[in-house]
Each structure stands twice: as structure tokens, then as C-alpha cells.
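Mods, move this if it's the wrong board.
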Amino acid sequence: MTIKARYIEFSEKGKVAVSSEDVSTEGLKPWEVVVRNESSLVSAGTELSRLHDVLGNGKYPMRTGYASVGRVVAKGSAVEDFKEGDRVFYAGKHASAQRFTHGQNHQWGRLYPVPEAIAVEDAPFVCLAEIAMTAPCITPLDLGDTVAVFGLGLVGNLAAQLYQIMGARVIGLDPVKKRCELARAVGLPVVVDAPPDRQIQAVKDLTGGRGAEVTVDAVGHSGVIANCVEATALYGQVALLGTPRAPHPGDLTTLLGKIHTNGLVVRGAHMWRFPAAELREAKQTVPWGYRVMFSFMESGRLNIAPLRSHFVRPDEAPRMYDGLKNDLENFWGVVFDWR
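Not the wrong board. C-alpha cells:
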């Protein structure tokens, strides 16, 4: 069988296009599958960085996306844990159908089951929830601890929700008014709409001058990390949930001195720290993470709907990426509908 598929690509730096191709279900390798997508979520930070070649190493044309939900329509002989018709999440590109190699030794090379009860427009958000859960999973909390999350984009919002589920008092901070409104909409009671130069004092004011026991950089910016260090309480923890990408001038000695004299622990909270498959030796695995995140989504403990600004057909992709870059008050969570 041949499927007429459409896909989104970055045809050149700064340019988004929608193209088409034939995807065959014949001649699959043992671990290959063909998935017909229902929806896919834009990861704005990563994808805009690639679209505009922030790191200077982009090679175009480039296919993008890593958060897709669909159904298996064909599979190779070695794939025994999924059958045709199963609903799956995987690191698929923005496309209506594609071939994908399952069974790899990292989480972007495997399929994960998706409950039928999760709405098509919500399901791909599990990708960002699983990324966000990394920080709460690696920062031990005591009763009464305060967690300050710097940056309330989708990942920061979800991380703040998860810390609140774990019982922490959460302070969310962001200079973008709309993101603060969304944080309040999902149930975060303490949200600070302030520019970066006022955020440290805001955390101190809300904690009696002590600072937060845990601070989280959910932006991926070295200046935000510096603010986190300054806003962390004595013997506290700093979690780097975002990935720093851009150079940032600053006084590294002062920063390290603060970490040293205040006894701070800085933790790298990258999503790839968890094993991609179930292991007897590990409780926290990627399959475990997706199961927990889906259960929180299904029960309503994770509030997803306010995080979605657009659920659109792929033809609108150029407008969506432009809005995510230039209109943060109206574009924040974009899901493509491939049905």
C-alpha cells in the first residue's frame, strides 16, 4: 500500500513549506513501522532555533518536529509490542504519515502507547510534560518547600503544575503577560509578571528574604540561570530544565562564588537522563514517565487545554511559526491536525 502523505519542512533558513510524498507500507525492515498521524505539536523553542539557524549549523531543507500521535498501519517482523491499529506517541516529524524505526536505545527512537481517552488535540502535549517532569523528578523536596519556576512557556508551565502536584508552594515568573495569564488559568496561584531585573527581588519578597528552596530555569538562557542562582535559598537547588543555546556575557566567578558559599546544588534536568525502556534496576524510566503524564492528563490533574492556542491544518504552518516567533500574546501552543 502507498499512502499519499503531506509534511512540513524548513525549505531554507526562515522559510516554512508544506510538501508531499508517497509513503510505502511495503518492504519494511524488521523494526520499522508506518504510522498515520492524528496530530503533532510544535516545540517552539527547539523548532524556531532550527528554522532561524540560531546555532549556525543548519542544513536545509530540514524536516522538523518530535511530538506526534498516530496509529500504526504497518509493522516489521521484529515489532512485537505493538500491533496494527494501536495508538502511539513517538518522536515523529510533522507529517500525515511516515516510516519510523522502533526499538532504538533512546526515547526518540521508540513508540509509546497512548490511551484512547486522551483527546487528539491534547495527546501530543505529553512530549513536553515528559520533558517538564525531569526537574521535579531530580530535585528532592521537603514539606513546605518553595519552588520558583523562571519561564512559563509550555515546559515551564507544565513543570510548575507538576511541582504543585508534588505539594510544593510554586512561584511562577515570566515577563510575558500572556504566559502569566495562562499560568493562572491552569491553577497556579502565585504568578509574577515582571521583567528579569525584578524577578530575584520578587522571589525574595515572597519568601521572607530567604529565596526559594528550588529554582528552575525553564527558559534555557544563561542570564536566567544567573537569576535562579541569586534567588535560591541557602543550601538550595537550581535545576537547569531549559537548554542554554545563545552566548551570554557575564561574571562567571561571582556566579560560581554564590554557588560555592551558599552550598547550592546545580542539577542538569535534561530529558535524556531516563532509560528509554523498562529496566529492573530503574523505577524512573521513559515508559513510566509517559504513563504517569497520561494518567495526570486523563484525570485532569495536568491542565492542558489552556496551553493550546491553535489546532490547525498543516497549510497554516507558515503563519503558525511566524506567530510563535513574533506574536507571543496570541501564539503559544500549536498543534497540527493531520486527519
